[in-house]
Amino acid sequence: MKLHEYLSSEGALTVSQLRALIHVKSDAQIRQWQHAYSARKPSPEYCVSIEKATEGKVMRWELRPDDWHAIWPELIGAKGAPDVPSEPRIGKDSRAADAVVPIPDRERRAQAAIGEG
Hints:
Residues 79-117 are annotated as: Disordered. The protein is 45% helix and 0% strand. The chain is mainly α. Mean pLDDT is 84; it is low at 94-101.
């Protein structure tokens, strides 16, 4: 269950109750995570605290879906755990490897000044 789903469900903790349980300074921080303002995510420590405070209704992998497996590799294959997200491929078979990345003018001038460009 996602944090916003949990907080709007019947019988859930309020934002203020959750804040007090996990020792966050303000309700606003919880709301930022709840609504993913500016793609903000709780720290790994807060993810574990939220999981415990919600009695496992909000799992840490739901709070950090892109990197949970790198933070908590022991959860890979755990009951209910999602599949590990695939990593972007970089290499001989990848189009990204053939991409031309422009060098910003300032960096190009710095390279030319020291004789690398």
